[in-house]
TrEMBL record:
Residues 1-26, 101-142 are annotated as: Disordered. One of its GO terms (molecular function) is FMN binding. Residues 133-142 have a biased composition (Polar residues). It comes from the Bacteria. InterPro entries: FMN-bd. It holds the Pfam family FMN_bind. Residues 25-101, 144-220 form the FMN-binding domain. Residues 101-116 have a biased composition (Low complexity). Signal peptide: none annotated. This is FMN-binding domain-containing protein. One of its GO terms (cellular component) is membrane.
Amino acid sequence: MAAQSPQGGRGAGAGTVTGDAARTQYGPVQVRLTVSGGKITGAEAVQAPKGGQSDQVTADAVPKLNRAAVAAGSADIDAVSGATYTSAGYVKSLQSALDKAAAAAGPAAQESSGADSGSGGGGRSEGDAGQGTQVLTGDAAQTQYGPVQVRVTVSGGRITDVEALQAPKGGRSDQVTADAVPRLNRAAVAAGTADIDAVSGATYTSAGYTQSLQSALDRAGG
């Protein structure tokens, strides 16, 4: 996934990269990764909520999130119970770190992908066609609670990663999104298609997710 971050180590295929700080209700969360040979070998939170009850929540949640990130090798990790906001901020910063690592590894591949050649439909296809890998962004699906938009990584004709670029937020939607989206991401990778079950309690988000996912997969097929 990553070669060498601009901040990173000197060895080929190794380095560190720091994600953007993600703001949460209880304070910012910022993640720094160590990447070697294209794999996450270490993760740490350089910023996390602190003060009062947040100290205990952070002390419990962050080590679990760090281990999960290394084990998963992606930002597709479960929220820690009792630390929903910290988990959501961690995942957001983690994803931005992974995006930076990927950009550092292959900017030429992204520039030559034709992503800026005017797709007209709002979606994009990025990646190195020679390796059979595409990153495809689906159309934003409008739901009762806000838009849902999905980005899919397809390699060798298989879904290898999915993330939600947009999802309902604000009020109760924050909790629903934090719970539902990671499950939908895992289901999409496992199924390899948009034929996935809705998450209980997140019917509208699930329907929008499936719609955007299908539009992304349609671009992969086309």
